[in-house]
Amino acid sequence: MTSYQVNVRRRGVSPLGLTVVVAARSRDEAAGIATALAENQRGGMFEPGRVRSLGRVEAGTAVDA
After folding, report:
1. Helix runs in the chain, H state only
2. Could you tell me the residue ranges of all domains in the chain?
3. pLDDT number for residue 50
4. Most buried of 45, 46, 60, 61 (most Cβ within 10 A)?
5. Is the separation of the CB atoms in 25 and 2 below 8 Å?
6. Does the domain spanning 2-56 belong to CATH 3.10.20?
7. To the nearest 5 percent, what fractions of the chain are helix, strand and coil?
8. pLDDT tens-digit profile of 7-42?
9. pTM for the predicted model, two decimal places
10. Which DSSP letter does residue 44 get?
11. Which pairs from 11-19 meet CB under 8 Å and 24+ separation?
């Protein structure tokens, strides 16, 4: 797996930008995971922006970004 830093944005009445670090198999999967996490935690509809690879990680490894 690879860790990815994903910027997500919520549009609408109260716009919000977040940066989320996730472990995923691909950039598309990372964008989907980050979007789902943001929507679940903050509410609203988010869309992914920039997705940046942070490198490979092994299961159980802590990532600090």
Report:
1. 27-42
2. 2-56
3. 95
4. 46
5. yes
6. yes
7. 25, 45, 30
8. 999 987 788 999 999 999 999 999 999 999 999 999
9. 0.82
10. S
11. 11/44, 11/45, 11/47, 12/44, 12/45, 14/44, 16/42, 16/44, 18/42, 18/46, 19/65
